[in-house]
Structures are given as C-alpha cells and as structure tokens.
Design goal:
With about 425 residues, the protein is mostly beta strands. The chain is about 0% helix and about 50% strand. The protein has no helices and 34 strands. A 5-stranded antiparallel sheet has the order 1-31-32-33-34, with no helix packed on it. Strand 20 and strand 21 form a beta hairpin.
Length: about 425
C-alpha cells in the first residue's frame, strides 16, 4: 500500500503527465468536476469522496455564519472563503495581499478585521470592506499587539473588541471606535498576555446596545461594562477558574453558560448574578456548549460520545444525540434555523449534521473518509482501496470515483 503521510481527507486521481517529449502540446480541456459538480484541481481525473463540509474545520480558522443563515465566511491564512452553509460548498475564494490575514468578521459579513504579521508578531490592524477588499479604517497602536488575536464586533458594527495574547493565552482587551479608529478603552496589562489565568476575555454584547460582557479570568468574575467607556456597571463571581472551561453568552446577553471539568454545564443570570440550575447528565467533562440563534436551544457536550439538547429557558432536556462510542465530540454548533446540530468528532475533519428532533445523523451527499488518508492501493481488478485515521477501509471504482463499500475497523490506520 502506498504510504501518504500528509494526504488530504479527500483522495484525488491525478494525471501525472500532460504530454511526453516529442508529442504535440495538449489542447485546453473543459474543467473536470467531481460527482457533485465541484471543480477538480488541474490534472485531476476524479475525486474519491467530496470536499464539502471540510473547509470549515481546523484549529487555524475563524468563521462567521451571516445573518441570512445561508452564508458562512471562513478566514484561513491569506484567504477569505465564502461557503454555502447548508451544503458546505465553497462558493468563492478571495485572496488577500501577502502577509495579510483576516481574524474576524462583522455580523453582516461586510467588514473584516485584517492583520499583518512579522515573525508571528502582529504589526498592523485595519478594517476592510469584504466585497471590495479595500481598507476602510486603520486601527493604529504603538503597543505590543502580541502574536494571538481574537475579535468581537458589536451587532451595529460601530465597535470592535480585540483580544490580544501570546502563545495560547490572550489577556488584553482593546475596544475600538470604528468611526475614527481610536481606542475607547482597554482592560488588562501587557504582562497578562500568555497566561491562561490572567487578564480578560470578551464574551459579547447584550441586546441593550449599551454594554459589553467580559470575563476577568484571575477570579473568574463576569463584568458588565459600558461599551463606550469600559466603566464597570456590575459584576459577579462564578466558580473556580481551575474547574471552568469554555464560556458562552446567550444571544440576548441575559445568561452566561460555563463548561466545566465536571459532568454539567453551569449557568448564571447576568442581571442578578444568580446561578441557575445546571445542565447535567454527562459522564465525562461537560466542557463545551452551543446556543441556537434564537436562544431557545442549548447543546452541551465534551468528553462523552454524545451531546445533549436542552430547551431554554426551561432547562428541560429535549434529547440526547449519540455518535461513535469510541470518540468524543469536538466543536459543535446549531444550524441557523436550529433544526440541526453540526459537529466535528474528535479525530475527524469533516462536519457531521444531526437532526435535533430525531437525533439521527443526516447522510452526507457522498460517502468519504472523515479523517486523514494514510494509504492507498489498487486491487487486481483495478479497484482502489484506501485507509486512514477514521477507522475505515474503503473501496472505490477507480474509473468513476464511486464509493463501493466500507470496512469499519477497531483502530485507525496510519502512523
């Protein structure tokens, strides 16, 4: 079997030579497409599987589901990709100038925060119009902007909060006025960057249009601040930071959901600081949660091979959705209409969708490997066999690219 140590999750049959010495040049051919009509790379004869549902995965991307619920913007490297959110199909790829990368988008997708880096350190920040790929406002600063940055646009796109850090730890918040590029306020000190238990992180903008909610990590305290001045209006304590995991603010800004090192997600009311009944029933860490766009559904999960769906604000368990018993859930989110929950299983690199009402997985448009492919081989009758870290061996028609059969294993195949 041919070893492919860095192969894609999707296999391609490549035409190795377009011409040989002494032969006339090959005339241009119509662009080839796969079984779903998606374009193939130059020289490829067929795609075994599909690239759909894969562009939105990875640790090094930033994404934004736009208000229309149909469009997903992805920032990766020096590219901005526009996807059909339902099909997972790439519609457009926008190339940015060298050393420029997008780190976030406004809710309507019209604006992007663009940074430049030198030796990983952020040098400049600016706001760009996504449609025209032109800068509309620079965000000048003489301070160290770190190597790591996340952002949060206000719903009206008048303010952006940037969260700066180094290595894997952010700690400094800067609030920017997008009308003139000036800094409105700052929370945290330069020495807070790089430490998981120091500094501040922004959680969101409540629907009142006047405040911003941030986490003060040292005491794991939730602080509600005037979004223009940064002045604290009220705050409340939650739980030990050692036991806290991922945080989410509800769309209306009324509740803070906190993943934990235990079997439940805990919840606090922002207005009063009162803790509400937790969302439990897990066996391992319930370290993550997702909230539907209308705030009426909560998904909780973590180390278990299942996630749980809750009605909110009643806190009533609606359904448990089970998946591969040997793997836990990675990231997950609701579709725009709240009818599906979409997740990436740990060790895989494809988005899988489950129906919220039935709990059943929605079949993919084509059968494909769900993780890295480490080896391929041809059978005597010219079929192709492939294997990878998704615990499967798959058989393909090498002429048409059609998936023929799958053999599920107990362990991944690969190094």
């Amino acid at each position: 079997m041919i070893q492919l140590r860095h192969a894609s999750v999707v296999l391609l049959l490549i035409l190795a030579l377009n011409s040989t010495a002494g032969e006339p040049p090959v005339t241009s051919q119509p662009k080839r497409v796969d079984l779903l009509g998606d374009a193939l790379p130059a020289g490829a004869l067929a795609r075994l599987g599909t690239i759909r549902g894969r562009a939105a995965t990875g640790w090094d991307i930033q994404s934004k589901l736009l208000a229309d619920g149909k469009t997903l913007l992805i920032a990766k490297g020096e590219e901005i990709r526009r996807l059909d959110a339902e099909l997972g199909r790439v519609l457009k790829v926008q190339q940015l100038p060298k050393d420029h990368s997008a780190v976030g988008f406004s809710d309507d997708g019209q604006l992007a925060l663009i940074v430049t880096r030198k030796d990983y350190t952020i040098q400049t920040m600016s706001i760009w119009d996504v449609a025209t790929a032109k800068e509309t406002q620079s965000l000048p600063s003489t301070e160290n902007l770190g190597t790591l940055i996340f952002d949060l646009f206000s719903p009206d796109a008048k303010i952006v909060l940037t969260n700066h850090g180094v290595n894997n730890g952010v700690g400094v918040i800067r609030a920017w006025d997008l009308a003139n590029g000036s800094i409105l306020w700052k929370a945290g000190k330069q020495q807070d960057m790089g430490f998981w238990d120091q500094g501040y992180s922004p959680l969101g903008f409540p629907s009142d249009g006047k405040t911003a909610v941030v986490q003060e990590r040292a005491a794991n305290r939730i602080s509600v601040r005037d979004r223009m001045t940064g002045k604290e209006k009220r705050s409340f304590s939650t739980m030990s930071l050692n036991e806290a995991r991922n945080l989410r603010l509800s769309p209306d800004g009324k509740s803070v959901f906190m993943g934990t090192s235990g079997p439940a997600v805990r919840v606090w009311e922002v207005e009063s600081g009162r803790e509400l009944p937790s969302l439990g029933g897990h066996k391992g860490q319930a370290h993550s949660c997702a909230i539907s766009r209308d705030g009426q559904l909560i998904a909780t999960g973590g180390q278990d091979p299942f996630i749980q769906i809750w009605d909110w604000p009643s806190g009533k368990l609606r359904r448990r959705i089970d998946f591969d018993q040997r793997r836990s859930g990675g990231g997950f989110a609701f579709s725009a209409d709240g009818r599906q929950v979409q997740l990436v299983i740990f060790g895989e690199s494809v988005v899988r969708s489950f129906n919220v009402d039935t709990g059943k997985e929605i079949p993919p448009p084509l059968e494909s490997h769900r993780g890295t492919v480490y080896g391929v081989s041809f059978t005597p009758d010219n079929k192709l066999v492939s294997a990878g870290n998704d615990d499967t061996v798959r058989f393909w028609d090498s002429q048409t690219g059609k998936h023929l059969a799958m053999l599920r294993l107990q362990h991944p195949v690969g190094p």
